[in-house]
């Protein structure tokens, strides 16, 4: 109708705005189509998705979802490090030849119960089979043996603290990064600690490198304070595996047993959560100006935690360490 009206003498502007209520651009496009291909060219084309752009069926969606949950992009030979909307779209195209936009990939991810989250770092060297055996066989057996011997299971770890550590957030005007004033001098201290799922806490704050003598002194302190046999679970730090430490444990075998976690799985150690607590709530909320002040701050915080066993017990409610509760 529009093309015929223009051919009969009506201007394109009059046909577009006054008579038919369409855009001038549409009228211009229709006139060009009619000139090139006649009125037949104005017939509407086939509507719907282009070939190869159809949506996933149920079986395909289930498989793509499983691949995203169980693997990382680089494990599937994709040129991505993280699962993003773009990497998911690439996976769908490679597996099924279906082209989807990043927006559509985002809708799939939301429908599959997924959201964008900050990833947790895991070492390539970790042995998932060994970790699975620890969770399902090794630790349950250790717990049974500890109950039979009326022993207390402690989870131990050590950590270094630095004066330039900053944690937490601070409100500021948008676009203006908040500034924290602190000493320009760098100093630090170290701590070694051990906790139980009953809320008990032993610790020692020290200066210098973590050495055999330091760890042995810490274990001596634990033995002096303990009324029952100690099962001390630690990571694979070289000090924990040293000859001197092994000899000390052997000499005190009636009252002490040292057990090592599988390698590269710090998330399984509840004492790592105490380390985070110290960094966030001791150093994160203070700005020590000297090493002595830092050591005093850490001491006071840990002494306070010793009087708050419910806080220590709550650490064992975190999902990765719930097995030890």
Automatic annotation (TrEMBL):
Domain Insertion element IS150 protein InsJ-like helix-turn-helix: 2-49
Domain Winged helix-turn helix, residue spans: 80-137
Pfam family, one: HTH_33
Stored SUPFAM superfamilies: Homeodomain-like
InterPro entries: Homeodomain-like_sf (IPR009057), InsJ-like_HTH (IPR055247), RNaseH_sf (IPR036397), Tc1-like_DDE_dom (IPR038717), Transpos_IS630-like (IPR047655), WH-like_DNA-bd_sf (IPR036388), Winged_HTH_dom (IPR025959)
Every Tc1-like transposase DDE domain range: 153-293
Cross-referenced NCBIfam families: transpos_IS630
Protein known as: IS630 family transposase
Organism of this sequence: Paraburkholderia youngii
Lineage of the species this protein comes from: Bacteria, Pseudomonadati, Pseudomonadota, Betaproteobacteria, Burkholderiales
